[in-house]
């Protein structure tokens, strides 16, 4: 959040913003899943002018061992802003802001990923902001959720996030850079869509309780729009995978085989006898009633064994 400037008209009297959006509108968002072949899961997102890429590795064994949790995996998020992502060159490397954002996103996923399935493990989420125009923590979380799903990491639900806020004393959704710099409040909110739980909530600036409620409702609605983009990305990704598998014949009807029958026969015969004749006794033995060598042949149904 920059320094609020009430003299700047960010929302006009008709409720239209500088980029032409209504107060309740989010910026256009597109997501593509599975764009990195060496990561276990990945996604690329464009949201307004924000451009974000995410790669997921894991679950893997967490090292050094002193960081392991015996009953669950640790979700580690590294948020990084590229030096060229902002109008002023961003000093490369981690800083307090990026550590804070990595931590709040990791905390959001800790409540959603089924970490108990991977004791002593780690799930690494690497998010790189290639171009930034406010709302990058939400964009990072949204992109990471798709990448985690692409990696097949089990989760309680899909998570999304979007910020609401205030400019010129009006509550608005999905602040851009100008609104973030000169507006009065920024309220990023992340939601687990399966449970409806809020998994991320931060606030910068000032809102009255009524404005907070309005912003919260707006963010909940905005999150539903973001979820649509996430679902589309995953559907496109897995539809492609399925189509490729289908083309490779993965779903073709298998050739009819008598394997199960043979396995059942072998089971009835018991272990092969010393001397070598036990291996494949197809043919005469069966017909002679030699299949069940644990007892005398009993004719029709030999599975019962009780008679
Ligand atoms: O990106 P987000 O809104 O989640 O976080 P922020 O700390 O409120 O930053 C708002 C925006 O300020 C970022 O999205 C960037 O566009 C910009 N920014 C920047 O230009 N240089 C930085 N070192 C940090 C942020």
Output the keywords:
23% strand; 6 helices; five-stranded antiparallel beta sheet; alpha+beta; disordered C terminus; binds cytidine-5'-diphosphate; 307 residues
What is the gyration radius calculated from CA atoms? 29 Å
Distance between the termini: 84 Å
What value does the average pLDDT take?
Answer: 87
Shape descriptor: elongated
**Proportion of residues in β-strands:** 15-25%
H/E element order? EEEEHEHEEHEEEHHH
Alpha plus pi helix count: 6
Strand order of the largest sheet: 1-2-3-5-4
Describe the structure.
The C terminus is likely disordered. The strands form 2 sheets. The protein has a 5-stranded mixed beta sheet. Strands 6, 7, 8, 9 and 10 form a 5-stranded antiparallel beta sheet that branches. Helix 1 crosses helix 2 and helix 2 runs parallel beside helix 4. It is built from 6 helices and 10 strands; from the N terminus they run ββββαβαββαβββααα. By secondary structure, the chain is an alpha+beta fold. The N and C termini lie far apart (84 Å). Strand 4, helix 1 and strand 5 form a beta-alpha-beta unit. The site of cytidine-5'-diphosphate has 13 residues, from helix 2 and helix 3. The site of cytidine-5'-diphosphate (CDP) has 13 residues, from helix 2 and helix 3.
Write the layout of secondary structure elements.
Elements: E1 29-33, E2 41-47, E3 50-61, E4 74-81, H1 96-110, E5 121-131, H2 136-150, E6 159-167, E7 170-173, H3 177-182, E8 185-192, E9 198-201, E10 204-205, H4 209-247, H5 259-269, H6 284-287
Parallel strand pairs: 4-5
Antiparallel strand pairs: 1-2, 2-3, 3-5, 6-7, 6-8, 8-9, 8-10
The protein binds cytidine-5'-diphosphate (CDP).
């Amino acid at each position: 959040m920059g320094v609020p400037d009430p003299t700047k008209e960010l929302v006009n009297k008709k409720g239209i913003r500088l980029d032409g959006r209504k107060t309740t509108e989010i910026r256009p968002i597109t997501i593509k899943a599975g764009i990195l072949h060496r990561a276990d899961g990945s996604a690329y997102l464009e949201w307004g002018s924000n451009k974000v890429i995410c790669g997921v590795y894991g679950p893997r064994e967490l090292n050094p061992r002193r960081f392991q949790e015996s009953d669950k995996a640790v979700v580690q998020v590294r948020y990084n802003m590229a030096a060229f992502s902002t109008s002023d060159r961003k000093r490369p490397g981690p800083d307090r802001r990026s550590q804070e954002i990595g931590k709040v996103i990791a905390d959001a996923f800790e409540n959603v990923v089924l970490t108990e399935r991977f004791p002593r493990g780690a799930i690494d989420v690497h998010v790189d902001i290639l171009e930034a125009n406010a709302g990058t923590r939400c964009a990072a979380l949204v992109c990471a959720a798709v990448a985690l799903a692409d990696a097949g990491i089990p989760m309680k639900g899909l998570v999304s996030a979007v910020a609401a806020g205030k400019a010129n004393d009006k509550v608005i959704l999905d602040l851009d850079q100008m609104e973030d710099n000169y507006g009065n409040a920024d309220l990023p909110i992340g939601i687990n869509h399966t449970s409806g739980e809020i998994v991320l909530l931060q606030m910068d600036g000032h809102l009255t309780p009524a404005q907070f409620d309005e912003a919260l409702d707006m963010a909940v609605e905005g999150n539903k729009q973001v979820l649509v983009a996430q679902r589309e990305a995953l559907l496109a990704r897995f539809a492609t995978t399925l189509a490729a598998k289908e083309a490779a014949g993965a779903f073709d009807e298998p050739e009819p085989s008598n394997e199960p029958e043979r396995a059942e026969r072998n089971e009835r015969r018991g272990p092969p006898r010393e001397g070598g004749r036990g291996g494949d006794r197809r043919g005469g033995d069966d017909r002679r009633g030699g299949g069940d060598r644990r007892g005398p042949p009993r004719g029709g149904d030999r599975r019962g064994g009780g008679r």
